[in-house]
Amino acid sequence: MQPYIVGLTGGIGSGKTMASQWFEAQNIDVVDADLVARKVVKAGQPALTMISETFGDWVLLSNGELNRRALREYIFSHPEAKQQLEAITHPLIRNEIEQQLAAATSPYVLLVSPLLFETKQTELTQRNLLIDTPEELQLQRASQRDQHAIQHIQNIIQAQMPRQQKQELADDIVLNDGDLTHLYAQLQSLHLQYLALAETN
């Protein structure tokens, strides 16, 4: 039987990770698209061979792993390279996500993805939850956590889907503008709602 799948997304510094960890603590299986994306480009995986054949050996570190920083900087200045990379990785990421979702055993399963809407991963979900945060708070949290310059974080926010567009696409929105107690209280009521929806799935 196909599990009931809830998509979870949010911009940088929104508290998406805090939210997914809370659901995990309620014994809900979590499939993390970022972890899957890292897994498919590990040394020895077909995707890494295809990436090095497409772009050249400079994308590899001396230990055979992907040089993420070099590839990220290259893609930033070569937009067509982003499409080439996505053509290689997205089908493999999608396949691995589908396998992990199918293997879930909790009443419902969470698909955590920062690009849930952008990469059409909503085709896999029955319901979608946005962890929403005002931009000034995103900047504050992300700069404290990652020690990145504010300008760098602003660039990331601008590269992501606009906040208002995400709000329009989401079924449920949690405004994470307070402390963790405030966040968890909102998640608790949604958790009960998702359990009930999974029951009738």
Description:
The mean pLDDT is 91. The chain has two domains: 1-28 and 108-201, P-loop containing nucleotide triphosphate hydrolases (Rossmann fold, 3-Layer(aba) Sandwich); 41-105, no CATH class. The protein is globular. A five-stranded parallel beta sheet has the order 2-3-1-4-5, sandwiched between helices. 55% of the residues lie in helices and 12% in strands. The protein is of the alpha/beta class and 201 residues long.
How far the N terminus sits from the C terminus, by CA atoms, comes to: 10 Å
Reading side by side through the largest sheet, how are the strands ordered? Answer: 2-3-1-4-5
SSE succession: EHEHHHHEEHHHEH
How many beta-strand elements? 5
- The CATH homologous superfamily of the largest domain is called P-loop containing nucleotide triphosphate hydrolases
> Kindly state the mean pLDDT as a whole number?
91
Low-pLDDT sequence parts: none
How many structurally independent domains? 2
Basic shape: globular
Helix count from the secondary structure assignment: 9
The CATH class of the largest domain is identified as Alpha Beta
Return Rg in Å: 18 Å
Largest sheet: 5 strands, parallel
CATH topology of the largest domain, which one? Rossmann fold
Strand content: 5-15%
Which structural class do the helices and strands define? alpha/beta
Helix content: 55-70%
- The CATH architecture assignment of the largest domain turns out to be 3-Layer(aba) Sandwich
